[in-house]
Write a structure and sequence with these properties.
heterodimer, A: 99 residues, alpha+beta, 6 strands, 23% helix, B: 380 residues, alpha/beta, Aspartate Aminotransferase, domain 1, Aspartate Aminotransferase, domain 2, 2 domains, four-stranded antiparallel β-sheet, Aminotransferase class I/classII domain-containing protein (chain A), Aminotrans_V_dom (chain B)
């Protein structure tokens, strides 16, 4: 799995105080990919929803998305924008391993 | 896609609005006052002011001025009154009021005092009376909360302002076009509106009314097409619309307000109220959903809610990406009301309808909300 494109979210108020990017992936998000993100922080996986929702959160960043979609959102706190690249690197590496 | 974010901007627009904008763009530009080509054509700005005056209860409609929106209008009015002492704002106000007051007016030695509201956003006479002092000069009141849909008793506010000799500034951004407004009956000294919400115009339009006799220093100066040799205004004969006008925007607003006048604001209000009542009744019976406000006082086309255990932004994300339903999450640029509602940290999920929202769309939203709430039952 790779992030092929990322665009700054137009919903500037949605994640108040955070800077959000919507990331387009080269594959659809599956359960395996979601579980591979678990080491990144506090993990929420609502797999009872019609389309399972996941979120990873810590003090510096937040990742959220929906199983079956080929995109997800990364939001970083204003002072910690360096995490955007780190997460991107993690996702790209983990995905290649897990696919 | 189901669009329930009309409190941010209305969608779709009436076809007459789209046609009017297209016709405006295809027409020869109106080189005002510079030739005979426009003789016989009605001045769209004046016609729009007249329509707005009819809709908003303003007989002196020539004192309605166009701006880029309610934010610019509020900055103009709040900054131009050159007040000192205290200004009262309600806890329901939008940042387009709070930020100009806090940032611009500190230079004018004006203090902001917040009138506390009830949990549903309602302002009581007791709260008004306990906030006023001998230093109070003006009051700003949001007619319809953009968070709870609570409609304030503007007649009561007008009487209060008159009793204490306050300048009464009414913000009708959320209500103009969907709730009856009568600025003169209210006794409003100034009234601010936006064009792109229930007035059905396009983004980049709005304006304000200021009653005769109220001194207002303009926010902007520039070319107006009248007496170009004059560089300094004397005797307060200010002009408030410098620069080339947003003619496509004003044309859209003219068409939008025409659509509302033709349809009838009472009829629009009734239809939207019916939709909101369905929402209140159905959402309140679903375990795991908290609805803020109530259908008795919150009669505007806006409702705030939350799912137990789910943040507003996550809720909106799931609604949007799983169900194709667009709502809005967060504080909705009105941070203070959330202190009264108990939603200060993360805000709410806001659902807002328009004349074009159908009952079927509302039922689909309720079904989606129920499905989400049921899925979460027992999880949190």
């Amino acid at each position: 799995m790779k992030i092929v494109e990322k665009t700054e979210s137009r919903e500037k108020c949605a994640e108040a105080g955070w800077f959000a990017w919507d990331c387009l992936l080269d594959h659809k998000i599956n359960r395996e990919f979601i579980l591979s993100l678990k080491p990144l922080g506090g993990f929420v996986y609502l797999d009872m929803l019609r389309q399972p929702f996941f979120k990873i959160e810590n003090d510096y960043y937040m990742i959220k998305g929906i199983e079956g979609n080929n995109y997800f959102r990364i939001a970083v706190h204003g002072k910690h924008q360096e995490y955007l690249e780190k997460i991107e690197e993690f996702v790209n590496t983990e995905k290649q391993n897990s696919l | 896609m189901i669009y329930l974010n009309n409190a941010a901007t209305s969608y779709p627009k009436p076809s007459c609005v789209k046609e009017a904008v297209q016709a405006c763009l295809e027409d020869v530009p109106a080189s005002q006052f510079r030739g005979g080509m426009q003789i016989g054509k009605k001045d769209i700005e004046e016609a729009c002011r007249e329509r707005l005056g009819r809709l908003l209860g303003i007989s002196e409609y020539s004192r309605i001025y166009f701006t880029s929106g309610a934010t610019e209008a509020l900055n103009t009015v709040l900054g131009g009154l050159l007040l000192d002492g205290e200004i009262l704002v309600t806890q329901t106000e939008h940042n387009s009021v709070l930020r100009p007051v806090r940032n611009l007016l500190s230079a004018q030695k004006l203090e902001m005092k917040v009138i506390p509201c009830e949990k549903d956003g309602r302002i009581t006479l007791a709260a008004l009376e306990s906030s006023v002092t001998s230093r109070t000069r003006a009051i700003v009141v949001n007619h319809c909360s953009n968070v709870t849909g609570c409609i304030q008793d503007m007649d009561m506010v007008g009487r209060f302002a008159e009793k204490h000799g306050l300048i009464f500034i009414a913000d009708v951004s959320q209500s103009a076009g969907c709730i009856p407004i009568d600025a003169e009956k209210w006794g409003a000294d100034a009234l601010v509106f936006t064009g792109h919400k229930s007035l059905m115009g396009i983004q980049g339009t709005g304006g304000f009314y200021i009653r005769p006799g109220l001194r207002l220093i303009p926010l902007k100066f520039g070319g107006t097409g009248t007496d170009s040799a004059k560089l300094v205004y004397e005797n307060d004969d200010y002009e408030y619309e410098p620069g080339t006008h947003n003619l496509p925007g004003i044309t859209a607003l003219y068409a939008g307000v025409g659509f509302i006048l033709e349809t009838g604001v009472e009829i629009i209000h009734k239809k939207e109220r019916n939709l909101m009542e369905i929402l209140y009744e159905e959402l309140e019976r679903i375990p795991g959903i908290q609805v803020y406000g109530n259908k008795e006082t919150c009669r505007g086309p806006v409702l705030s809610m939350n799912f137990t255990g789910l943040s507003p932004s996550d809720s909106a994300y799931i609604l949007g990406d799983t169900y194709g339903i667009t709502v809005r999450a967060g504080l909705h640029c009105s941070p203070l009301i959330h202190q009264a509602m108990g939603t200060g940290a993360r805000g709410t999920v806001r659902v807002s309808v328009s004349w074009f929202t159908t009952e079927e769309e509302i039922r689909s939203f309720i079904k989606a909300a129920e499905e989400i709430a049921e899925s979460l039952t027992g999880v949190f």
